[in-house]
Every structure is written in C-alpha cells, then in structure tokens.
Specification:
Number of strands: 0
Shape: elongated
Radius of gyration: 15 Å
Helix content: 55-70%
InterPro entries: DUF3563 (IPR021946)
Largest sheet: none
Number of helices: 3
Pfam family, one: DUF3563
Organism: Rhizobium soli
Strand content: under 5%
Oligomer: single chain
Structural class: mainly alpha
Protein name: DUF3563 domain-containing protein
C-alpha cells in the first residue's frame, strides 16, 4: 500500500534541483556551451531562493 502512495507522490512532485541541472546540462550543443552552463550552475543559477 505504501509503495503505491510513494509512486503517486513521486509523480506529483516537481523535478528536483539536481534533475533540473542535469536537464540543463544535457541541452548543451558543444563543449564550450557545456562549460558555460557548468559555470552558471556553479554560481547558483538553480539554487537561488526567491
């Protein structure tokens, strides 16, 4: 019973910070773009509190 509740909760939650960062890095089109994106993430692009 609890496993089905966990699966349902996992579907409803949004992507984690790590998942968003990895998706952003995967969109890089070349090495230089990837390095730029890594620097942006290191500066806290996805970790800023609003």
């Amino acid at each position: 019973m609890f496993t089905s509740v966990r699966k349902f909760a996992r579907v409803l939650r949004g992507p984690s910070v790590q998942e968003r960062e990895m998706a952003y890095l995967n969109e890089a089109c070349d090495r230089f773009d990837l390095e730029h994106r890594v620097r942006q993430i290191d500066r806290g692009m996805f970790r800023k509190s609003i």
